[in-house]
Design goal:
This protein is of the alpha/beta class. The protein contains 21 helices and 16 strands. A hairpin with a 2-residue loop joins strand 9 and strand 10. Helix 6 packs parallel to helix 7, helix 8 packs antiparallel against helix 9 and helix 10 packs across helix 13. The model has no long low-confidence stretch (mean pLDDT 93). Its EC number is 4.2.1.12.
C-alpha cells in the first residue's frame, strides 16, 4: 500500500528542516570511515596495550586480518533487566572467534534503575545518566580499534544513551542486543491495586512488599509497557535489533542463539565485508519516523518524546513535538499493554507481538518500508520471527492474525483511530500528555490548581486530607535545569485515589512522569520550565487551568497571571547528596525538554 500522504509530508518536513545538520554529520561519518580503525597503524607499544589481554586472539589482532568487534555493555547485577548480560561477552567472543573474528569489551556504561530511585533523591540523576552513558560510550570506542560494535542495554536511559553514543561513531555498524523481559508474575493491575490500598492506609507495608516481590521476581525487564520495553520496541521499528528478538525471556535457548547471530551480523556489516552498513545509514530520517509511528501505535512511554529528540539530534536530525503530535493523529492504537490494558509484554509477544504489528502498519501505509536495518534492506524483515530447528536458528514468517484481539488488533479495527501521545500548547507553554490509558471522560479537565514545589509537599497535603474537590495539581521546579527533571510516578497512587472518589483530577508539571503513566491525565515536560521563567512559575493556588487533550491545549483561564512576579524556589537541597553535586555542570548546561533535555547543545 502507498505510504500515507501525511506521513510523507511529515518526513519531508523533517528532511528539509534537518538538511544542514544532517549533511554535516554524514560528511563527518564518511571522513571517519575513510580513516578506518587505528589499530593497523598503532605503534608497537599501542598495539601491545590494546591486545595484551586478548589471549588466543592476540595474533589475529596483531596481524590485522580479522574483524574486531567492540562490546559496549551496561551490565550490572542490581538491575534485573541487565543481569543476563553477565554471560554475553563470552558468548560473543566465542561466536566471532569461530568465524575468524575477534571481540573485546570496549567499555562499560552506568545503568541505574528508576524503579529503585522513584521518589528518591537518586531520581534527580536519572535523566542526566542518559548523556553520561553517551559520553561513556564515546570513551569506550575512543581507542578506535574496532570494525563494528554491539551494544548491551535495555532500560530507560540506557538505550537512548547508547544510541547517542553509537551515532558519534556512526561510521561503524552497530547492533543492539536485548536481554528480554522477566517471566510474568503478579499481574500489574493487581500490583497497582495494592499500591493504592497502601497509599490509602488500607493495608500494611508487609502486604505491599509481598505484592512488589511477586511482580518483580527474576532476571529480565519489568513486564509492564514502560520506557524500558518502549525502548525495545523502538530498536525493532528502527532496525537495530534482530527481528522479534526484544521480548524473548532470558535463559531461553533461542535467546543465546540470537545473541550469537547478532554478533555475526555486526561484523558481517563492517567495512571489511561487501555488506558495509554503518549505523548512520540505518538511523535515517525515515527510521526515526518509523520509531515515532511505533511509539504511537503501541501507546508507549512519554519519556521517548524527550529521548527520541535527543537521539535524532546526535545524527543531525531535528525532530519537534509537533511531529509526534501529527503522527499520533494519523496512527491507530493497535495494542493494549499495561498500563494501557491488563496484559503484560509477554502476553503481547504471544499474541503476535511486534512482527504482527509491523506487518499491519506496513500494509496500512503507516511505515516507511525501505529503511536499512541490521536484518537487511527493508522493514519487511521485521514481520519474521526466529525459531530453533534442530538446534539451529532459522527465520519464518510471523503470524498474520492476532492471537488475542483484547491485546493486539489489526489496523482495520484498532483500539483507537489515533495514537497514545499528544502535544499540548497554550499560554502555559508546550507540554505532552499520554492519553492511551486515560478514559475519554478525563480528557478534558478544568479546575482550580494547587501549586507545589516538590512531590513530598503533594504527599503531605494528601495525607492531611487537603484534596476535597476537583483539582489540578501543579508540581513545578522539576525541570532539567532545576533538579534534573525527575519522574513523579510516586504521585500516581494518590492521584488515582482522588480520581476514584469522583473528583476531576490532573497533574501539570515541568518534570516527568513514569513511562508507565496511567489513568490520571498528566501534562508533563512543560516548557519553558519554572526555573527558566516559564508561565508555570506565575501560577498561584486557585488559578483555573483547562487541560484539553482532545484539542491539544493547556490554558490558564485566570486573567492577569503573567502580570505577577514569578515564584522562586530554594534549590539548595537538590544540589548535594546522592551524587547530585557531581551533576552541577549538567544542570547548568542542559537544554529544554522540547529540544531533548540534553547537555550536548540544542
Amino acid at each position: 500500500m502507498a505510504l500515507h500522504s501525511d506521513l510523507t509530508k511529515i518526513t519531508d518536513r523533517i528532511v528539509e528542516r534537518s538538511a544542514p545538520t544532517r549533511s554535516a554529520y554524514l560528511a563527518r561519518m564518511e571522513a571517519a570511515c575513510r580513516k578506518g580503525p587505528s589499530r593497523g597503524h598503532l605503534s608497537c607499544s599501542g598495539q601491545a596495550h590494546a591486545f595484551a589481554a586478548a589471549g588466543p586472539d592476540q595474533d589475529a589482532l596483531a596481524t590485522g586480518q580479522a574483524g574486531n568487534l567492540g562490546i559496549v555493555t551496561a551490565y550490572n547485577d542490581m538491575l534485573s533487566a541487565h543481569q543476563p548480560y553477565e554471560r554475553y561477552p563470552q558468548l560473543i567472543r566465542d561466536a566471532v572467534r569461530a568465524n575468524g573474528g575477534t571481540a573485546q569489551v570496549a567499555g562499560g556504561v552506568p545503568a541505574m534503575c528508576d524503579g529503585v530511585t522513584q521518589g528518591e533523591a537518586g531520581m534527580e540523576l536519572s535523566l542526566f545518566s542518559r548523556d553520561l552513558i553517551a559520553m561513556a560510550t564515546g570513551v569506550a570506542l575512543s581507542h578506535n580499534t574496532f570494525d563494528a560494535a554491539v551494544f548491551l542495554g535495555v532500560c530507560d536511559k540506557i538505550v537512548p544513551g547508547l544510541v547517542i553514543g553509537a551515532q558519534v561513531f556512526g561510521h561503524l555498524p552497530a547492533v543492539f542486543i536485548p536481554a528480554g523481559p522477566m517471566t510474568s508474575g503478579l499481574q500489574n493491575d493487581e500490583k497497582a491495586k495494592v499500591r493504592q490500598q497502601f497509599a490509602a492506609g488500607e493495608c500494611g507495608r508487609d502486604a505491599l512488599m509481598a505484592a512488589e516481590m511477586a511482580a518483580y521476581h527474576g532476571p529480565g525487564t519489568c513486564t509492564f509497557y514502560g520506557t524500558a520495553n518502549t525502548n525495545q520496541m523502538l530498536m525493532e521499528f528502527m532496525g537495530l535489533h534482530l527481528p522479534a528478538s526484544s521480548f524473548i525471556n532470558p535463559g531461553a535457548e533461542i535467546r543465546d542463539a540470537l545473541t550469537v547471530e547478532a554478533a555475526h551480523r555486526a561484523l558481517g556489516m563492517s567495512d571489511l565485508s561487501e555488506n558495509y552498513t554503518p549505523v548512520c545509514d540505518i538511523l535515517s530520517e525515515k527510521a526515526f519516523v518509523n520509531g515515532m509511528v511505533g511509539l504511537m501505535a503501541t501507546g508507549g512511554s512519554t519519556n521517548l518524546l524527550i529521548h527520541l529528540v535527543a537521539m535524532a539530534r546526535a545524527g543531525g536530525i531535528i525532530l519537534d513535538w509537533q511531529d509526534f503530535s501529527e503522527i499520533s493523529d494519523i496512527v491507530p492504537l493497535l495494542a493494549r499493554v499495561y498500563p494501557n490494558g491488563l496484559a503484560d509484554v509477554n502476553h503481547f509477544h504471544a499474541a503476535g507481538g511486534l512482527g504482527y504489528m509491523i506487518g499491519q502498519l506496513l500494509d496500512a501505509g503507516m511505515l516507511h518500508p525501505d529503511t536499512k536495518t541490521v536484518a537487511g534492506e527493508g522493514l519487511h524483515h521485521y514481520t519474521q520471527e526466529p525459531v530453533m530447528e534442530n538446534g539451529a536458528l532459522e527465520w519464518r514468517a510471523g503470524t498474520k492474525e492476532s492471537l488475542n484481539e483484547g491485546i493486539l488488533r489489526p489496523a482495520s479495527n484498532p483500539f483507537a483511530t489515533s495514537g497514545g501521545l499528544k502535544r499540548l500548547a497554550g499560554n502555559l507553554g508546550t507540554s505532552v500528555i499520554k492519553v492511551s490509558a486515560v478514559d475519554p471522560a478525563h480528557h478534558i479537565i478544568e479546575a482550580p490548581v494547587r501549586v507545589f514545589h516538590g512531590q513530598e509537599e503533594v504527599k503531605a497535603a494528601f495525607k492531611a486530607g487537603e484534596f476535597t474537590s476537583d483539582v489540578i495539581v501543579v508540581v513545578r521546579f522539576q525541570g532539567p535545569k532545576a533538579n534534573g527533571m525527575p519522574e513523579l510516578h510516586s504521585l500516581t497512587p494518590m492521584l488515582g485515589i482522588l480520581q476514584g472518589r469522583g473528583h476531576k483530577v490532573a497533574l501539570v508539571t515541568d518534570g516527568r512522569m513514569s513511562g508507565a503513566s496511567g489513568k490520571v491525565p498528566a501534562a508533563i515536560h512543560v516548557s519553558p520550565e519554572a526555573l527558566d521563567g516559564g508561565a508555570i512559575a506565575y501560577l498561584q493556588d486557585g488559578d483555573v487551568l483547562r487541560l484539553d487533550a482532545t484539542q491539544g491545549t493547556l490554558e490558564i483561564l485566570t486573567e492577569g497571571v503573567m502580570q505577577r512576579v514569578a515564584a522562586t524556589a530554594d534549590m539548595t537541597d537538590n544540589q548535594f547528596g546522592t551524587g547530585r553535586e557531581l551533576f552541577a555542570p549538567f544542570r547548568n548546561a542542559v537544554g529544554s525538554a522540547d529540544t531533548g533535555a540534553t547537555v550536548f547543545g540544542s
